[in-house]
Structure prediction request, 394 residues.
Amino acid sequence: MNINDIMQIAQRVECVAPSPPRAVFDLASTLDDVIDLTLGDPDLPPPVNVREAACRAIMEGKTRYSANAGLKELRRAIAADAERQLGFAVDPDREIIVTVGAMEASFLSLYTLLQPGDEVIIHAPYWINYSQVVRSLGATPVFVYTKPEDDFQLTAEAVEELLSPKTRLLILNSPNNPTGAIIPESTLRRIADLAQERNFAVLSDEIYESLIYDGKSCKSILSLPGMKERSILINGMSKRFAMTGYRLGWAIAPAKLISQMTKMQENIVACAPLPAQYAGIEALSPRTDNSFIRKEFQHRRDVLFNGINSIPGLICKPIPATFYAMVDISGSGLEAEDFVYRMLREVKVAAVFGPAYGGELYKDFIRIAFTMKEERLKIALERIGDFMTSLKNR
Ligand code: PLP
Prediction:
């Protein structure tokens, strides 16, 4: 064996493509004066009592390891919060694991559940991590493509068409990154029936459930009869309390799965960071008012929606949830990847090209994250308008 053989990268890692949003973000960070609309990372601070709780934990030396599944007090708080949402009791000792962000919760769930050869249905456009992790584990992602002309709505019929004897899992993400689409209860009911008739599991990533606008709400598939036993719920603090850097999330799943995930946690990160866990307990307490977060993003959503739709050649459909907009750029005459890199170089605005989230069907779209302050968002909109004008004048 020579040195290249010894340092050969494992196939399970080599098959993972670098993340396109990160690639645009990295390029943007090498240029001056860029307005970066790539990452879903809110610029708001968490509520002040949450920040104080994290500082207090550090100053009091609460900085050691916790149980692999997370602090019991935090799991109790998560269970109480979930019970309000789901309508049934969740056992904090057996059915919850606290993780390093929702990202680790979904990784650990897939790592624990999937066997090589299993098929996993993912609705596109999708959060890129799902397909990457599924592939890395030797399982096969099978994509159900939701269409722009249907407002990116998933149907149970489209899922049914893709079922095979190898289907193990369906990943649902509602509200959805990158489209903001919410799966209506009627569709969830049909999917729940299908899951029980055809025997597959569901991973429901509900990380954007706190960012639904205009007084609307979203049902969890776990709350439907017969689904708790075959589902994993993923959620976390990042979007709801603007705590992305605290890296705190969780999974709720049947005890058999949680115990295995907890066993693996020891071999991955041991536990989520303890000061973040104390901040999480505070975040879920009645003392916390996070209503300013949704209010602020709803306002920015309006600024972005009106701004984009006033630029000739661009179309933004209503955004019911999340802090992302899929903007139709077909009027520019460019395909999304070209559009994104030219817009970045020429007017210093960074966004992500649609095909990054599921391929060519989305070549007429870019994703904009409106996680910037209103003043910056308005400057970005002016620059995007200038870019569109300059394309027309060429
Ligand atoms: N799930 C979805 C759909 C996301 O968009 C993200 C982050 O952007 C995550 C999970 C990860 O969230 P966390 O910061 O809790 O790891």
In short: The CA atoms of residues 211 and 322 lie 5 Å apart. The mean pLDDT is 96.
